[in-house]
Specification:
422 residues, alpha/beta, Rossmann fold, seven-stranded mixed sheet, 16 helices, globular
């Protein structure tokens, strides 16, 4: 890929700031999400641990004198460092010795076992989580509505999205994999299928060197896809898998899920636990999510036409798409994303909370018919929150698959996903 074809990422600036403040930066995230390309854009020298011509010699060097692999112009990129975990401590020691910021960038598409690194790297390493591309990064959202501006009180939104329902269905099935964004439609749609097959047959077993049954992994992924954006329990997933006459234990499901988390395939959405005006039982379970909605479409063996013929499934996966994008945007403005649901059934699909305490509640609705119900839900949630303790809500928003962004008379914002940026 040439320099000109590189689509800038929102984390580019975050990486530069991290390099200025820490001796080394660790970029983690799913395979194919663009870590190496983004890191190499900022690096002055590169060590590719997966280079087939040199892997064995690199491994031997790591075992005998790892400091030799760290020589080179800085920032030096060490790609897929977890192939030689000793490099973590070697980098930490070298950072201490040199005493300068911006020495190394490490990328990894798998989290190594807890006992691999002798030292956490606190004070030497800055961590950066990278996800697949948002619609703004893939140039499909026009970015006319900024989350940062909304938090700052600029809420007179008037905008229009060029993303039709058909284009949303395609973007969802293609996913935010940088290489697929640059390809023609047919090739682009194939990438998510190839990704899922690699996960099932190789990656999920390699992460902890524990052989996993590919058929069980496939059934687990399929169950997760069917239960995406829900609070499905381990028991629900177990029942789903066993309906196919294949038995699986709770322990196996938990082990497989942990492996999928460690290779950044699964990224569940935690519950928000705010202070309430009155006693309300809040659900504490996480919502089931993949790091990218295209994983679900690939596992379910559907495509854009399939989604357009099944609006119920499309709706769940649209929420997953919006969750991915809002997570990407929130990270840039130093925020975290949660969901809210209480015992009465009142919910908010997404809660964005910034480090300074400001927060916003978001509902996701693919079609315009559900906007009224979503707006009433958000207003009911606002009334339940103890704003003396939590602070006043910055904004309430319904994200849609529609065309127009506007502010309702009750103050609730209605914004198409094709208009949003960080």
């Amino acid at each position: 890929m040439s320099e000109k074809s590189y689509l800038s990422r929102l984390c580019d600036q975050e990486l530069q700031i991290a390099l200025q403040s820490s001796g080394a930066v660790l970029i983690e995230g799913a395979k194919w999400c663009g870590k190496t390309r983004t890191a190499s854009n900022a690096a002055k020298s590169i060590l590719y641990m997966q280079d087939p011509d040199n892997t064995s010699s690199y491994q031997a060097m790591a075992d005998t004198k790892p400091s030799l692999l760290l020589k080179g112009e800085t920032p030096r990129l060490i790609d897929e460092w977890q192939m030689a975990p000793i490099l973590w401590d070697a980098v930490r020691f070298e950072v201490d010795k040199r005493g300068d910021a911006g020495q190394f960038i490490l990328t990894g598409s798998a989290v190594p076992a807890d006992n691999v690194t002798a030292h956490t790297g606190t004070g030497r390493f800055s961590r950066l989580l990278m996800r697949p591309m948002s619609l703004f990064e893939s140039r499909e959202s026009n970015g006319t509505v900024s989350l940062s501006d909304l938090f700052d009180g600029n809420q007179a939104v008037e905008a229009m999205s060029e993303l039709s329902i058909e284009k949303i269905a395609f973007a969802l099935c293609r996913g935010g994999w940088p290489a697929s964004v640059m390809k023609n439609e047919k090739s682009a749609l194939r990438m998510s299928k190839d990704y899922v097959e690699a996960v099932i047959n190789h990656d999920v077993s390699r992460v902890d060197d524990v052989e996993k049954n590919p058929e069980r992994v496939r059934l687990l992924l399929r169950s997760l896809a069917r239960n995406v954006t829900t609070l499905a329990s381990i028991q629900t997933i177990k029942n789903d898998i066993e309906a196919t006459d294949i038995s699986i234990s709770d322990k196996t499901i938990s082990s497989y899920l942990n492996a999928l988390r460690r290779i950044f395939v699964v990224e569940d959405l935690p519950a928000w636990l705010p202070s309430m005006r009155s006693k309300t039982a809040i659900r504490t379970s996480s919502k089931r999510h993949f790091v990218d909605p295209s994983i679900a479409t690939a596992v379910l063996r559907t495509n854009p036409d399939g989604l357009l013929n099944d609006f119920k499934t499309f709706g769940f996966l649209f929420e997953s798409l919006c969750t991915r994008d809002i997570r990407v945007y929130a990270q840039v403005i130093d925020g975290d994303v949660f969901h809210y649901r209480d015992k009465s059934g009142l919910e908010s699909d997404l809660i964005v909370r910034l480090r300074d305490g400001r927060w916003a509640a978001i509902e996701v609705k693919l079609g315009n018919k559900q906007i009224e119900e979503a707006a009433q839900n958000l207003l009911a949630l606002k009334a339940k929150i103890d704003e003396d303790k939590m602070g006043q809500v910055s904004f309430l928003m319904v994200i849609t698959g529609g065309q127009y962004a506007y502010r309702r008379n009750d103050g609730v914002l209605v914004v198409p996903i094709g208009c949003i940026k960080n």
